Amino acid sequence: MVSRADRSLFSEWWWTVDKFLLVGVLFLMFAGVVLSLAGSPPVAERIGLDSFHFVKRHIFFLFPTIAILIGVSFLTPRQVRRAALVIFVVALALMFLTLFFGHEVKGARRWISLAGFSLQPSEFMKPAFIVLSAWLFTESTRQSDIPGNIFAVLLLAIVVSLLVAQPDLGQTMLTVIVWSAVFFLAGLSWVWIGALAGLAAGGIVLAYSVFPHFAGRINRFLDPSTGDTYQVDTALESVLHGGWFGRGPGEGIVKRVLPDSHTDFIFAVAAEEFGILLCILLVLVFAFIVVRGLSHSLKNEDAFVRLAAAGLFLLFGVQSVINMAVNLNLMPAKGMTLPFVSYGGSSILALALQMGFALALTRRRPETGRLTLRRMRPAGAEV
């Protein structure tokens, strides 16, 4: 048992970190291992690998994931900001190199090999970018002579340019949505709102005109007869096949022909084998993490902490909603993982960094103003 009288670094962390948020994230990690056992063997067998190849790798990545989550949560807000700057610069450099030296998969260059591991730099860029944007918005409001909003827009333009060049329109949309939400929370004027809305609409129209695969996904969503909807249709069949209580662990049938059952469509596998009730539980856990995190962040008196933490939890929540909506055919298909549940080394490590930042920012800290007042107040004086 950790005593409150103990002034060690671990004791301070233990009594200030939100344990409910931590348990929620760890629950999702555990669910990811269980669902990896359900969804990944058919995929591994189809491509000639050992049945538990992806399960073993998922568990292998789980150890550094937990270490990153816990370790990063020890940081102070200033250390979070500095770490985000370093990670952002490195991730941008790797994203640029990926365009020339990355692996091409289905016409996209998003992964680069480092020390024998395949890394997706854009996954690590997202949380760092949100933290830096929050800091720039905060500085813009604190000091009118610092053009923080302009710098934030320039950073967004650089990030969007690199993502579109890969191309990765799903991550582009996710990043822009969350960045815009943080900007809104920072108190942007209606002029900015109108300009951003116009740019977003123009960007969607341009992407529809320039990228055939993007246009194809929207067309198939609006009218399934215009193209191949096999994966989405199979995912829906998997959900319906499970009913309320599922067919049981390892008893899924439709999952065996679902191409990305271990990554983008793991939610459909959960529905088939464990039922709609488990899916509802997962939705509730995701919602709990986001709502509790936003509640903590919006109560914080530090503007930077408030914006950065809110942005990180929104990033987590929007990504979750997009993945589950695609599984249920509620929006056009996008290659996006379900946080901590889907298989993917870069994804789970980057999410650990993201939620580590969020836990660090939402830790309970003494209010500086009140502490100063108490020190200055004479003994026995009334408030």
From TrEMBL:
It is an enzyme of class 2 (transferase). It catalyses: [GlcNAc-(1->4)-Mur2Ac(oyl-L-Ala-gamma-D-Glu-L-Lys-D-Ala-D-Ala)](n)-di-trans,octa-cis-undecaprenyl diphosphate + beta-D-GlcNAc-(1->4)-Mur2Ac(oyl-L-Ala-gamma-D-Glu-L-Lys-D-Ala-D-Ala)-di-trans,octa-cis-undecaprenyl diphosphate = [GlcNAc-(1->4)-Mur2Ac(oyl-L-Ala-gamma-D-Glu-L-Lys-D-Ala-D-Ala)](n+1)-di-trans,octa-cis-undecaprenyl diphosphate + di-trans,octa-cis-undecaprenyl diphosphate + H(+). It comes from the Bacteria. Coiled coil: none annotated. Pfam families: FTSW_RODA_SPOVE. One of its GO terms (biological process) is cell wall organization. Its EC number is 2.4.99.28. PANTHER family: CELL CYCLE PROTEIN (PTHR30474), PEPTIDOGLYCAN GLYCOSYLTRANSFERASE FTSW-RELATED (PTHR30474:SF2). This is Probable peptidoglycan glycosyltransferase FtsW.
